[in-house]
Amino acid sequence: MKKESIANNNTIFQQEEKSIQQARETLADGEFRKTPWAKPFATLLASYEKLWAHTCRVMRISDRFQEQLQAAKAECQCAEAALRVKNAELEAALAKVKSLSGLLPICSGCKKIRDDLGYWNQVESYIQKHSEATFTHGLCPECIKRYFPGLEEPPK
């Protein structure tokens, strides 16, 4: 699109420059200078040349603006694509996250946790309901000695 616009502008520039040059040649013609139209034609040509110079400046500014606009548009599209990827990653991470936060009321004796409805739950079940954690059970060396005094400690 940009190259077509520049090509069209170049064609217009060439045509107008050719027209202005032809008008200058007509004005330089000795026979034409003798006509009553020579002076108004010269005034009109001078005004047109000024107008054409301003038009050329505006077109160059417009072309530069279009280039900057295209660059900004491409940059926005890249940023938008990166944001889409990041949003998808964040949404996937958010879907996986279930977290515990704040203070948990826990019994000092049995270690049960009180939920929002006032019921006391085993630590394992409460954490499984409120997070992605799962539990496996085993015995630590101290509990093996306490509950099974005759067994050996498992290897580390």
**Compute the gyration radius: what is it?**
43 Å
Number of strands: 2
Strand order of the largest sheet: 1-2
Termini separation comes to 71 Å
Can you give the helix content as a percent range?
55-70%
Number of helices: 5
Structure description:
The chain is mainly alpha-helical and 156 residues long. 67% of the residues lie in helices and 3% in strands. The chain contains 5 helices and 2 strands. The chain has helices at residues 2-28, 30-33, 38-96, 123-130, 141-147, and strands at residues 113-114, 120-121. It has a two-stranded antiparallel ribbon with strand order 1-2. A hairpin with a 5-residue loop joins β1 (113-114) and β2. The protein is rod-shaped. The mean pLDDT is 86.
Short description:
With 156 residues, this protein is an all-alpha fold. Helices cover 67% and strands 3% of the residues.
How would the blueprint of this fold be written?
Elements: H1 2-28, H2 30-33, H3 38-96, E1 113-114, E2 120-121, H4 123-130, H5 141-147
Antiparallel strand pairs: 1-2
Helix pairs in contact: 1-3
Key descriptive features of the protein:
156 residues; mainly alpha; two-stranded antiparallel ribbon; 2 strands; rod-shaped
